[in-house]
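Researcher: Next sequence.
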Amino acid sequence: MTDNADDDGVAPAGADDPASGADAPLLLAPRVTFGPTAFVIGYAVACLLVAAIATVAIGWGTSRDLWGYLWIIVIAAFYAAGIGLLTAAPVGLALGLLLRGVPNQWLHVLAFFVVPTLLAWLVIGLLAGSIGVPLLMALAIGISAAAGRLAVWRLMDVRY
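Model: Next structure:
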């Protein structure tokens, strides 16, 4: 008995295999993607940390108990978040987009420390006409930004 099947409607071997890349987009380099959840969590961590640093550095002795200090940190975080929407958020978004092709997450954390620190030192230093105190303020901002980026490490999607 012979089989009289028509082979015109049959795809060649491996053509419908998803690993073959027939329908998959061509990625030339790895891409790091982040969503709004990662941005909001990183931003919140950075705002809380810069507020805590400011409270410890400046506000120490302004309250008599732990709850008073925690309230000062919350208020300072709201101020940091409000100011940061105009200053830090654009820098963070730009850094996130510029670093999309860099799969090493430690380089992201380093960039989120170096770039905000240098920008803050430049801007605050020019406004204050000083070097020392603006550097300390800029280091607090850079450490906070790096900690915010480190906090969302697992929320990043590295696609190869």
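Model: The chain has five helices and two strands. The longest helix spans residues 105-128.
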